Amino acid sequence: MSKTNGNELITGHMPSLTARLESIHTMVMDKVPSIDRIAFALYDTKTDLLKTFINSTKTRVPIKAYEIKLADVPSLTELAKTGSIRVINDVQAALKPHSQHSTWVLDQEYQSSFIIPLNNGS
Q1: Is 11 within the bounds of a domain?
Q2: Domain span holding position 20
Q3: β partners of residue 52
Q4: Can you point out the beta strands (E) in 1-122?
Q5: Residue 82 falls inside a structural domain
Q6: Which residues lie below 8 Å from residue 30, measured CB to CB, with a gap of 6+?
């Protein structure tokens, strides 16, 4: 993991989007140290695939190259349609190991989850 500072983020002289996200994550953790992971997924409308794009994971094992059809995840499909956010305050109680991603989240012992669907305006 590369070490960066706020100046590099502002000037844009960083090697990758992942490095930029790691820099932002470090700044966020200065204020809220319990935020262990920030991630972005991309949605391909042609294939209906939601794919892990970039992530910054500080103390746990990041999920690698994960993808799933959005139609196979009703809760995320609903968020995509409505633009609503989702907060899970007790991940261990709320999630069941019914998918690779849910199993991974439970195995990492995350306590909470916050999802914001972002749309490019289309």
Answers
A1: yes
A2: 1-35
A3: 41
A4: 37-44, 49-57, 67-69, 86-88, 113-115
A5: no
A6: none
Q: Is residue 21 part of a domain?
A: yes
What are the Cα distances from residue 38, in Å, to 13, 30, 83?
21, 14, 19
Residue 1, domain member (yes or no): yes
Query: What domain count does the chain have?
Result: 1
Q: What is the pLDDT of residues 51-102, one digit of tens each?
A: 989 999 998 988 888 999 999 999 999 999 999 999 999 999 999 998 888 9
pLDDT for 1 beyond 50: no
pLDDT score at 62: 87
In what helix (H) or strand (E) does residue 30 lie, and over which residues does it extend?
helix 17-31
What is the distance in angstroms between the CA of the first residue and the CA of the last residue of the chain? 34
Dist. CA 119–CA 9, nearest whole Å: 23
